[in-house]
Amino acid sequence: MRNAPLIGAEVCQYENSSNGDFLIDTHPSLSNVLLVGGGSGHGFKHGPEVGRYAASRLFGALKEEPRFSLSTKGETQHREVH
Hints:
Helix content is 21%, strand content 10%.
């Protein structure tokens, strides 16, 4: 296998926030940067609305949704399933 050619490589991208909610908030030190993530498998189906929300936040048309804020995210996982 040492000299075998690489014929393919696939990635199954999965990302999530510590509490399972989206992260959509301004960068702590760069006010012109909006952080968007935490969508995991739900990011695709919610993509259009997340995009609309993010654009509205960038242009000041919407106030921050507290559950999407960076301050609600931790460094350790704490997801509740209801």
